[in-house]
Structure prediction request, 311 residues.
Amino acid sequence: MTDIDLQLDRVAEAATVIDPVFLNSPQYIDEQLNQRLGRRVLVKVESLNPLRSFKGRGAGYFAAGLAPGTTMVCGTSGNFGQAIAYAARRHGLRAEVFVPADVSPVKLRRMKALGARVRRVEGEVKDAAAAFAAEVPDRVFVVDGREPAISEGAGTIGMELARETEIDTVVLPVGDGALIAGVALWLKVHAPGVRIVGVGTTSAPAMARSWQAGEPITVDRANSFAGGISIRTPEPDSVRRLRTLVDDFVLVDDDDLRAAMRLGAETLGVVPEPAGAAGLAALTRHEIPGALAATVITGANADLSVLGMTG
Prediction:
């Protein structure tokens, strides 16, 4: 993997730098879930932290390398914005977050509560964020999926999964690709027999098509139901990493995600957001090989109305 710009020693370092509240999240085999899926599955729950998602790992490691007085600027559908806000506050920095006009109200409230200045915009949020960051030297435009440190921080999940020596398949939601790249980097060296499977959505298959093509492919999103893994154009660096590190890619639709959200609630007592349930959806929808598969509930900032619930 000499062509990969991610470094194993930096993943190990990240585990010593990231706020401990995000580390060593629960990972276990739930017998009720196994019965429903008809197979053995280990689940890692990344929603039991102040952000209700895994994003604090990568954002925290990235922020630790910035100079005091820096303003972190990003464009996001929600969870990454929360992570940037949290990391900025913890490291004495500032956060400016650009979000789509139809951003999830749940995620919008949480970003503001964490201290970010949130700007709702029409059009492409990353373009607006990049233009804003370019105006002043102390603003840093942070792109999830592009920055190596963010993948390396997420790679600490791979370190923790590697403690379970029986895992032979890992199934992960994929949006920008930071999570799966970091996890796969660690596992390809420390558990080389493990197969890495990415999950995207039929309504926003940009990363799946880009992975197949070996270059970024732009795809218009049909909707934003699974906003956390719905992107239009992947980062070139991310596509390059995934071409080397990911073994397979599958797609699920919105109904699959809704069913997986209910499955998580009924068996695990966790209500994932749509993107966070993508691994469960893939294990339900597709014949993915492996005696013990692992997946990650990547986030739980859900609008409960999608399940006919209030909250």
The first helix runs from residue 8 to 17. The chain is about 40% helix and 15% strand.
